[in-house]
């Protein structure tokens, strides 16, 4: 047998962390990491796509876990949970 014991699990290039609150009066945001490096903040889906595009990544499916990992909620979660 030449197969490895564990299957290959790919890491998505884009990681969108949970919703965070900033200073009073500023909207909540999510930290965006690309290839393990913090690259910016996003306040909505459009900003996630823009950050990805500035790093040369075209996202065709925001629901594909091989491309984007949403931590602490999905792509529609943009307010803090209480």
Which properties best describe this structure?
alpha+beta
Structure description:
Helix content is 12%, strand content 27%. Strands 3-2-1-4 form a 4-stranded mixed sheet, with helices on one face. The protein has a domain at 14-31 and 38-70. The model has no long low-confidence stretch (mean pLDDT 90). Strand 2 (29-34) and strand 3 (37-42) form a beta hairpin. The protein is an alpha+beta fold.
Summarize the SSE layout with pairings.
Blueprint: E1 14-20, E2 29-34, E3 37-42, H1 45-54, E4 68-70
Parallel strand pairs: 1-4
Antiparallel strand pairs: 1-2, 2-3
Please tell me the overall pLDDT. 90
Number of helical elements: 1
Radius of gyration: 15 Å
Shape: globular
Instruction: Give the spatial strand order of the biggest sheet.
Output: 3-2-1-4
What string, H for helix and E for strand, traces the elements in order? EEEHE
Strand content: 25-35%
Overall strand count? 4
Given the helix and strand composition, which structural class is it? Answer: alpha+beta
Major beta sheet, specifics?
4 strands, mixed
Unreliable segments (pLDDT under 50, ≥5 consecutive)?
Answer: none
Note the gap between the termini: 51 Å
Portion of residues within helices: 10-25%
Short description:
The protein contains one helix and four strands. With 82 residues, the protein is an alpha+beta fold.
